[in-house]
Amino acid sequence: MAGEIEHIKGKGFDANPQNINRKGRPRKLVGSIVKELEKKGVEEVSKEQIKSCFLMLINLTKDELKEISEDEEQPILIRVVAKNILTGKGFEIIDKILDRGIGKVGQQTDITTNGESLNKRPIIIFNDNEDSSE
Q: How far apart are CA 12 and CA 111, in angstroms?
């Protein structure tokens, strides 16, 4: 074992302290990850594509959702949503999907008129700077 170490003596950080990376490996930035994904052919997903996909998932049977959630070839977003629809919180997930896909039901609030129509009066603007001799 001593003979195995002899060949690396004088080549480590003791002899070359400038080679020590004290901060560790540099972090990958989002831009570099985007470039890597683009090279692999990965494309951005549009809002409309996500909306359509979510609304289509709701139309699937339990067996179809299970098949998608277990398919390693499916995008992770689709697998996670399909898997969560199948859980005990399925209704909550479907409710969220509908809110995102269709929008929340509108709520009307009447705070000032007690249900009566608003009294619309014309606004008259007077200009004190005008010459009134005309």
A: 76
Residue 134 has pLDDT above 70, yes or no: no
Q: Which residues in 96-131 are b (16+ Cβ under 10 Å) and which e?
A: ebeeebeeeeeeeeeeeeeeeeeeeeeeeeeeeeee
For 89-132, how does the pLDDT look when each residue is reduced to its tens digit (9 = 90+)? 877 888 887 777 777 777 677 667 676 777 777 778 887 776 65
DSSP letter assigned to residue 130: S
What are the φ and ψ backbone dihedral angles of 15, each rounded to 5 degrees? -85, -25
Strands (E), the chain: none
Residues 6 or more apart in contact with residue 79 via CB below 8 angstroms: 68, 69, 70, 71
What's the pLDDT score for residue 25?
75
- In angstroms, the CA 82 to CA 90 distance is 9
Q: Tell me the whole-structure pTM to 2 decimals.
A: 0.51
